[in-house]
Amino acid sequence: MSKLFKRYVEVVTGNLKFNNTDLDIEFEVPFDDDLEPNISEITIYNLSESTRNKLKRGEVISITAGYVEDKGLILSGRINSITTTPLGADRATVIKVIDTYSFNVKKTLQRSYKGKIKADAIIKDLVKALGLKVAVLKLPKNKLYDKGFSINGEIFKKIQDVANDCGASAYISRQQTYIRPITEGDNHRFVLSPDTGLVGSPEYFETERKGIVMKGYKAKSLLQHRMNTASIIELQSIVTKSKVRVKKGKHICKGNSFYTEVEAIL
């Protein structure tokens, strides 16, 4: 807990760099394990007109957040919209960010594959057609489609469907695409406990997905950059000591609030 003091927030886009020492900055950054791009929101107060004019739609933007002695990247995406409105004596510039890179999420395709084709071959072809940058492709079960496979619609959704057929998650995080087992992720060897920022007690949950029951915990901590989609963490509290994989959550910085909430599966 000794490192979790003196909050740090830095927003970078183009040649612009903002931090919470010079400006009031708020954000909400959601994350999850599906391919639907998440929309994050960054609010920066009292930017000059000349600075606001330098913010450009489509530009890459990132947030590094945490604490002076323990910080990391929590968002990398592209600016989707910029609006500025008066808010009392202040002026709030709201930047909405898509957690993805440049590709046409609505792109469609009409194509048929012959029988005896495996899922990985379909995914590789669809990924290429959509222009996705795949960091990891690992299927726990490489399903064989005996009668072939066809697509007549959005490529994006079909990739998700085939991944699910194989017991994998397909998601975009920090401008990279991952298709891998729902239980696998990035092991930062991080222990979340009251000593490292855990707030309250984790809450147990069960949920069903395509006939598969998933069990896990909902947890809240002081803002923690290591917790993102597919992060593997050790959860230690009075109610559980278990290794979990983050499924979804959000990072929040607003007023006095500076925290991360996650749902993580066993």
TrEMBL record:
Any Pfam family the entry gives: E217_GP41
Cited InterPro entries: E217_GP41
Highest rank taxon of the organism: Bacteria
Official protein name in the record: Uncharacterized protein
Species: Lysinibacillus mangiferihumi
